[in-house]
Amino acid sequence: MRFLVALLLLISTTVVMAQGKKLHDAACLQCHSSLTAGKPNSFYTRSDRKVNSLASLQNRVKGCAVAADVDWTDQQRNMVVNYLADSFYKF
Q1: For the segment 54-72, what is each residue's pLDDT rounded down to a tens digit?
Q2: Which sequence spans correspond to the domains of the chain?
């Protein structure tokens, strides 16, 4: 039973990550690429990054969604936050 629960959690986490990446890539990459000479992920990996906590990441994603004029639900925004936190920030 525990194996089944762990497997379901892994599958749901994988789906959420994939959805978060898809939303992020569609809404964020073009702007980030233009601001970083074609290296959009450098926003997340630079040594002087401005986001240093989950709360600041949530605020940053919310602000960027407004700037990008995307109409994400809270769930979609959380998917993007989870994707970025797990892929880059490692909070």
Answers
A1: 999 999 999 999 999 999 9
A2: 1-89
